[in-house]
Amino acid sequence: MTTVSNAEYRGVWVFIEQVAGEPAPVSWELLGAGRQLADALGVELAGVLLGQGVAGLVSEAWAYGADRVYLVEDPVLGPYRTAPYARALVELVQRYRPEILLLGATSLGRDLSGAVATALGTGLTADCTGLNIDPATRLLEQTRPVFGGNVMATILCQRHRPQMATVRPRVMPLPPRQEGRQGELVRVGIALKEEEALATVLKVIEEKGKAIYLDRAEIIVAGGRGLGSRENLRLLEELAGVLGGTLGASRAAVEAGWLPPEYQVGQTGITVRPKVYFAIGISGAIQHLVGMQNSEVIVAINKDPEAPIFKVATYGIIGDFQEVVPALTEEFRRQLA
Ligand code: FAD
């Protein structure tokens, strides 16, 4: 086996995730983060797009900052399966040798990144909240919370390449879309066989009911233990209804069974970055804050003036939510009529 020195690896790659041709927005967020890393290193930023009939996304990747897109289209890559996706990505890495490879910390990204890092024998830092280049060493500084969010650790992958990291949706800002921006397209053929896929997709069953996409919501009305009961959620639903917002919850509210787990915001829930986040009866524990503190405007409603949520709030209202929330709903209804 020939050994390749780390210096032979160049460039920053972002995996462009798509399901049935629908791109995961975290891919564009990562192109924004990847641009800064590539500029700091003085190298190119590339997107990697795997699938079938997905070439339409190439111009989107250019528009969000990719200088080049590696495209592998193959019927075996139609529905996502770990084995062929991992095989294609591993082969691309071995052929073109990027020094950094970023993926979204979605269910698909978490599955694929682990398989690829294992096959390549390199390191992987999951759920990073910060990515930087150390100019002295050119190493990727991968920062993420550890020990329940009380400590931030910066992790380096010194000996192996590529340096791999995943980032949750909405942790990085969406870069501006540059309409008409052009880049290079590299179509790559990889000999994939259906019988090596290890799994067959028999049927895709769409989830019934209203799917919630908290990480894409522009207005979130979140409730915590301070609501006291599931019945009181009605007041938050009314406020969300008037504003066209989505409900959210602290872990305490989820554990109380007032809302299902997919509504949980925070370290072990979803990271959100809405235009407006209402935190109602939520104390502001660090594990909750890490999931929502990047919201553009935070409105905190709490009867305890010392509640830590007020430290991150744009507007703080000290009071009982049973009085404050209906008054806000009424006023918004009047203003928006
Ligand atoms: P509390 O801390 O009990 O706060 C309730 C608040 O409501 C208080 O501030 C109180 O003053 C206020 N209140 C009470 N009555 C009223 C009223 N009538 N009007 C107005 N305000 C009122 N938590 C998360 O949210 N998300 C996570 O992802 C998460 N992950 C975790 C991971 C780990 C490893 C650990 C250890 C913990 C995690 N937690 C998470 C839990 C977290 O530490 C807190 O316990 C939790 O966020 C508290 O929820 P809360 O703010 O709703 O409840």
UniProtKB/TrEMBL annotation:
Domain of life: Bacteria
A molecular function GO annotation: flavin adenine dinucleotide binding
Biological processes annotated in GO: fatty acid beta-oxidation using acyl-CoA dehydrogenase
InterPro entries on file: DHS-like_NAD/FAD-binding_dom, ETF_a/b_N, ETF_a/FixB, ETF_alpha_N, ETF_asu_C, Rossmann-like_a/b/a_fold
CDD domains: ETF_alpha
Domain Electron transfer flavoprotein alpha/beta-subunit N-terminal: 12-201
A Pfam entry, by short name: ETF
UniProt keyword list: FAD, Flavoprotein, Oxidoreductase
Cofactor: FAD
Keyword Flavoprotein: yes
Cofactor note: Binds 1 FAD per dimer.
EC annotation from Swiss-Prot or TrEMBL: 1.3.1.108
Positions that bind FAD: 225, 250-251, 264-268, 281-288, 302
UniProt key word Metal-binding: no
Family: Belongs to the ETF alpha-subunit/FixB family.
Family annotation (PANTHER family): ELECTRON TRANSFER FLAVOPROTEIN ALPHA, ELECTRON TRANSFER FLAVOPROTEIN SUBUNIT ALPHA, MITOCHONDRIAL
Full protein name: Acryloyl-CoA reductase electron transfer subunit beta
Organism (species): Neomoorella thermoacetica (Clostridium thermoaceticum)
Lineage: Bacteria, Bacillati, Bacillota, Clostridia, Neomoorellales
